[in-house]
């Protein structure tokens, strides 16, 4: 009987409106999505969000974002608890891999699932650690006296942002980044010196607190100034989160400097060669869900 029910699963492309359902499931899992993630995430690949339905009822989802013919990212892999262990998740997983055939696929999965991902050809690249902190008066004293300036990202040409951002991601994601830095309930700042962007960060309101994502900077001093400025207008005690590559030891120490504590860890994995990214300049990952 159970086997017959598995064959009834329908998997189809999700609409932008339906992406809100996936975000609500993610919130229940404790992933703490941003308030406006649906609109921005959808622009990464409007064809890359899959919904699983059983007799018309949505029971699971997965994102399979194809950024180019060569690179993709999997996330939002969820099945409602009462439907787990019945083969539905595997059907979703196979549908995503089929859509992304031929790509180097990345993901951020929970550490406990590494072995399962390895069975599908994924290899561990490094770990990411989510840090949680609270805004304090002491943070305001960490603004470094740099010769450049912190400016709102929206005042810069998009081309300036993308010229800097391209080093940190193995494919073009211009439409997504434009929406990401302009989203509501968010603040995006860049550090500019002699007309060149040398760091930027985005802070957005989430279901709980705020996330700084991404936080890219050419030096620890720039990163420190960005995180200080991004949290400056938050109420004292407000929670904020930062997802840090564990192999970037300077960034790990930097998070602790702001009295942040590790609360969660993921395994960054790829199906092919690990992209050459400047991990020593990544102080905060953009998204565990879409890369």
Structural write-up:
This protein is α+β, with helices and mostly antiparallel strands and 291 residues long. The protein folds into 2 domains: 2-127, Aminopeptidase; 129-284, Aminopeptidase (3-Layer(aba) Sandwich). Helix content is 27%, strand content 34%. The protein has 9 helices and 13 strands. It has helices at 2-7, 19-28, 37-44, 88-99, 114-119, 158-165, 174-182, 220-230, 249-257, and strands spanning 10-13, 49-54, 57-66, 71-79, 104-110, 123-134, 149-152, 186-193, 196-205, 210-217, 239-245, 261-270, 282-284. Strands 1, 2, 3, 4, 5, 6, 7, 8, 9, 10, 11, 12 and 13 form a 13-stranded mixed beta sheet that branches. Helix 3 (37-44) runs antiparallel to helix 7 (174-182). It is globular, with a radius of gyration of 19 Å. The protein starts with a helix and ends in a 7-residue tail after the last strand. Residues 1-6 have low confidence and may be disordered.
Element layout with pairings:
Layout (H helix, E strand, L loop, with lengths): L1 H6 L2 E4 L5 H10 L8 H8 L4 E6 L2 E10 L4 E9 L8 H12 L4 E7 L3 H6 L3 E12 L14 E4 L5 H8 L8 H9 L3 E8 L2 E10 L4 E8 L2 H11 L8 E7 L3 H9 L3 E10 L11 E3 L7
Parallel strand pairs: 4-5, 10-11
Antiparallel strand pairs: 1-2, 2-3, 3-4, 5-12, 6-11, 6-12, 7-8, 8-9, 9-10, 10-13
Helix pairs in contact: 3-7
């Amino acid at each position: 009987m159970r086997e017959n029910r598995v064959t009834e699963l329908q998997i189809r492309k999700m609409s932008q409106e339906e992406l809100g359902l996936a975000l609500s499931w993610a919130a229940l899992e404790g992933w703490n999505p941003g308030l406006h993630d649906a609109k921005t995430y959808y622009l990464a690949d409007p064809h890359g969000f899959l919904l699983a339905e059983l007799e018309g009822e949505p029971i699971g989802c997965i994102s399979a974002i194809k950024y180019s013919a060569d690179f993709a990212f999997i996330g939002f892999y969820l099945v409602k608890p009462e439907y787990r262990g019945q083969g539905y998740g595997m059907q979703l997983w196979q549908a995503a891999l089929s859509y992304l055939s031929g790509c180097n696929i990345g993901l951020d999965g929970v550490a406990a699932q590494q072995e399962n991902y390895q069975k599908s050809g994924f290899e561990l690249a490094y770990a990411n650690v989510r840090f949680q902190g609270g805004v304090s008066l002491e943070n305001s004293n960490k603004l470094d006296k740099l010769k450049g300036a912190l400016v709102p990202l929206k005042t810069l040409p998009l081309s300036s942002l993308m010229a800097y951002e391209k080093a940190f991601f193995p494919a073009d994601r211009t439409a997504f980044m434009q929406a990401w830095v302009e989203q509501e309930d968010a603040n995006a700042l860049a550090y500019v010196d002699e007309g060149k962007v040398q760091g930027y960060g985005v802070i957005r309101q989430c279901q709980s607190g705020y996330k700084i994502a991404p936080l890219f900077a050419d030096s620890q001093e720039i990163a420190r100034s960005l995180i200080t400025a991004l949290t400056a207008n938050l109420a004292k005690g407000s929670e904020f989160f930062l997802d840090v590559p564990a192999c970037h030891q300077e960034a790990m120490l930097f998070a602790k400097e702001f009295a942040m504590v590790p609360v969660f860890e993921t395994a960054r994995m790829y199906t092919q060669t690990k992209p050459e990214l400047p991990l020593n300049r990544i102080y905060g990952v953009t998204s565990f869900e879409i890369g």
